Amino acid sequence: MTNNSVVEIQNMVKRFPVGGDFFTALKNVNLNIDKAEFTGLVGPSGSGKTTLLNIIGGLDSPSEGEVNSLGMDLKNTSHGERAELRRSQMGFIFQSYNLLPVYTVFENVELPLILNKVDTQEREKQVVEAIEWVGLSDKIKSRPAMLSGGECQRTAIARAIVHQPALILADEPTANLDAENSHHIMKIMVRLNKELSTSFVFATHDEKVMGYLRRIIHLEDGEIAKDENIDKPEFDE
To answer: Does the residue 81 lie in any domain?
Structure first.
């Protein structure tokens, strides 16, 4: 990988068994994503965007070709090695929030640091900072059932960024939110991208998300149909 790359994919194919045959979900994918990019994989349902996001995150493996994320060859590594990479250098944001209902906001955000064996004092400092980042300091002791959808997603973002990963993967992060909350969430992520130089890769077909992206990779029938860089003005906080 080049020094500035976080993801490099060459001649990648992904097939899934269907009955006695195979369905090709991705084909001939070649893609580089650099540090601090704010990128979206865009396309209709079934275009392969979530499959590609999962392969970048080491949650799935390619059938053919090369995939390198954050310096690790994901095709030739063990499940444990990929899990360690995700735990230490990646963050994930999903449309369903995936918060633990019996945990408070603090405890949900703290979980990645416990898994990474960060000591108690440093853990508390990092959790409080992450919760401040997303504007939820007044909800720090609340459980998910006491939060709005937007607050749940902001908690999920804090959990994703608490260990300041190099790469955050977000699958339809605004799908369950209204327009106001969607824009608020996206502005938080734009700010994180700018101030922490964290690379973001979204899988989305939400026009509100697309309006914030600085690079859009269009997928059609499992192939990259178009890859465009977008000039954006600075967004207001």
So the answer is: no
